[in-house]
Design goal:
- This protein has two helices and 18 strands.
- The chain has 279 residues and is mainly beta.
- The longest helix is centred in the N-terminal third of the chain and has 20 residues.
- It is elongated, with a radius of gyration of 32 Å.
Length: 279
């Protein structure tokens, strides 16, 4: 009698270890959203709001101010398809260039561009992005590193948010531009933050998956021969059952294992061998 009681007890333990331990990620009957299983990295998409950002066309969009323009080479100009600043006056000057980007829709943005200039040990220019008199973000530009075979360094601002359609004022300002300092700015872009549920700017609906598990038998009794238990998993996406081919296409995978880690399974039998059907 004692032996039979022990067999039945072990049968229950093994059943618990297999039915609960050999469950797909998400667990039997659990509802989960695939879009939320791993936080998506913040992504950005280029907009066409910053027109002529590569300065390939002649433009008067940038307005320049220089405290002492007496030197022939002290100027802001579009030079070789770049916004070029050059302090050739022989004096330390303040210099700035400014332009407006109009009718920017509500949303979260950042400004990106490139710079290349005379080697310095300290920052020379500061970038401001304003909405009227409100500073949305500002950034001290990294010290420039010299000609560097004409290579430019990327610059990006912190993100800023517009609650409604607005005009932006972009200002590059140097309060103390060193003598003979030169710098080129190019490839300005206003990028918009794209939520993780959007692809190519078009909103995509999150998928909700339901997983259910059905074992071929409810209990297993130890014996001299191996006992096989088949678990059938059914997956539904937004209420529609998925085929094996659809699971593969969506890159949804199941992993099964004998469980000995979960609370209550510490003494469960874990000598089970797991095999997967082909296809």
């Amino acid at each position: 009698m004692k032996k039979r009681w022990l067999q039945n007890t072990l049968a229950i333990v093994l059943t618990a270890a297999m039915c609960l331990g050999l469950a797909p990620c998400g667990g039997p009957g659990r509802i989960f959203q695939a879009a939320e299983t791993k936080p998506a990295a913040e992504s950005w998409t280029d907009t066409n709001l910053f027109t002529n950002g590569d300065l390939t066309e002649a433009t008067d969009e940038w307005k320049a101010e220089i405290t002492d323009p007496s030197g022939d080479e002290t100027k802001f100009t579009i030079n070789k398809e770049q916004l070029n600043a050059n302090n050739g006056s022989g004096k330390i000057n303040s210099m700035s260039a400014e332009r407006t980007v109009e009718n920017v829709p509500a949303g979260t943005y950042r400004l990106v561009f490139e710079q290349n200039g005379e080697e310095t040990d300290a920052s020379v220019f500061t970038l401001f992005v304003k909405n009227g008199e409100t500073v949305l973000t500002q950034k001290e530009l990294e010290p420039t590193v010299g000609w560097n075979d004409g290579k430019f360094s990327a610059v990006e601002t912190e993100a800023f948010t517009l609650e409604k359609q607005s005009n932006l004022t972009i200002t590059l300002s140097a309060s103390a531009c060193p003598v003979d300092y030169w710098v080129n700015f190019d490839n300005f872009k206003l990028q918009k933050s794209v939520p993780s549920t959007e692809i190519g700017g078009e909103e995509q609906e999150k998928s909700e998956y339901t997983v259910s598990i059905e074992p071929s038998t409810k209990s297993v009794v130890f014996g001299s021969s191996k006992t096989s238990v088949t678990f059938t998993a059914t997956v539904e996406e937004n209420g529609e059952k998925l085929t094996a081919a659809q699971l593969k296409e969506k890159k949804l995978n199941f992993y099964w294992w004998p469980d000995k880690w979960s609370e209550g399974h510490e003494n469960g039998q874990t000598a089970a061998e797991v095999s997967y059907p082909k296809g």
